[in-house]
Amino acid sequence: KCPRRRDVGFPRQSLLGNLQVDTGIDDARVCVSSYDGGDYYEIQTGKDLTFKTGAGEFDVWITKQNYKPKHFEYTGSDTVVVPPGTIVTLPSQINSVSPNPASTQTTVEFICWNFHSNPSIQISFTNINGSHTYTFNVPGPITKSINEATFDISHFQNGTYIVNLIENGITISSTTRLIKQ
Hints:
Blueprint: E1 10-13, E2 19-22, E3 28-34, E4 41-46, E5 48-51, E6 58-63, E7 70-74, E8 80-81, E9 93-98, E10 105-111, E11 121-127, E12 133-137, E13 146-152, E14 159-167, E15 170-172, E16 177-180
């Protein structure tokens, strides 16, 4: 019997460094291995699977009897190489904050993969001890994946701030920091 020409799943990186694969079908077999020949290798069977990969680049194979196998090269939280026409949803992220350190204004570059759904985007700055948070709405509509927004930070107290992106009310934690001087 020839495999059906049915598509199965795609990989996406979670915010915790795990690789999540939703195959879209029950009992699919998924193999994830380090792309560069490293030491990560795991096989799981199921529909919605989580692999504790950590950061890195991975080969992902999805197979099931009577289905056409799929291969993906997962190269990080911002890139998945997939066949044309496949819809991939990835978490948005902060790319950079500049200038940094800053005294009056700073520009945050961020990626919004879900811009087609017209998301509500906010950027928050929380000082390192958590006592002050400043949240700004990013003017919309968001019409592209890579975006920039400039913020007046002259009223911030001096110190180190954690920069977070908030998409549709969901805070996407970041390790990005801003030093206000």
